Amino acid sequence: xxxxxxAVLGVGMxxxxxxxxxxxxxxxxxxxxxxxxxxxxxxxxxxxxxxxxAIADPLDAIADPExxxxxxxxxxxxxxxxxxxxxEHGKPVLCEKPLxxxxxxxxxxxxxxxxxxxxxIQVGFMRRFDHEYVQLKSLLDAGExxxxxxxxxxHRNPAVPPNFDSSMIVRDSLVHEVDVTRxxxxxxxxxxxxxxxxANPGAPQGLQDPQIAVFKTASGKHVDVEVFVTTGVAYxxxxxxxxxxxxxxxGLDVGLVxxxxxxxxxxxxxxxxxxRFGQAYDTEFQRxxxxxxxxxxxxxxxxxxxxxxxxVCEAGVESLNTGQPVEVxxxxxxxxxxx
Length: 339
Ligand code: ISE
Description:
Rossmann fold, Dihydrodipicolinate Reductase, domain 2, 7-stranded mixed sheet, 6-stranded parallel sheet, NAD(P)-bd_dom_sf, NAD, MI/DCI_dehydrogenase
């Protein structure tokens, strides 16, 4: 295969960014089909890319014979149907999180893929490809910190869209720390509690922001996360790992530090996740394209990772309402995937 021919479904903020990424920065792949429920938007994007067509129906886009692989950046509620169509057509798919929006449909997708006996789904938990997270993970795996004990995380957004409600802070934002915890510690989260501090007076009426999440992992490790999505400042994601033999910090935004106007010094913080995790998205896509072209199993986050994250988030939303720790109940993995 000379070039992987990709259909990108959903060309909102993230999908459009992925189209630009594949077109300008990813080698060995090009976008041949775009789809969006806003057909004008899809057509405008297709018109700017040589050899690219807009297809109005997402399932037709997946089935199109020219399409080798699919990127899903469509709204979460549409994912189950689209993922099942990708499996049916045997097409590798890189699916932006969430895998699906509820536990039952996520599990159905995991089972459908397992029945094929072949990995076709990768979930877009991009932080696993960020240089700093990768470095932290390799130090951890090399035993540099001894036994890891605690993870402190901060996840701040300057603002969120008007439709963002308190449960989306769990499902859409905190979900990244759910995946980071499972990635770094290689174990499942067994309970989650969401604490509701006094809400930001500047947040939209009724939005519980910030939230403090506490996870407990299977071996008893502690993780706490401050998620605060209406800071009005910039995009900040920090993680501190504390272990038996020391600790490490990532996400300090230490780029260029400038000394300027009388008595001041400082740098810049990225405005959003597109810039903060730009390198991670690029690496994620290049690795996925290379694996699909080589016909080897993709090694990024799997459908199981998507299902596990959905299950933790469901427990998180329950805890958001009750304030109590909620147990996370995963099905037995070996019974489905043989893993
Ligand atoms: C958004 O959907 C993301 O995935 C970002 O990474 C996250 O920081 C943000 O809070 C979400 O809304």
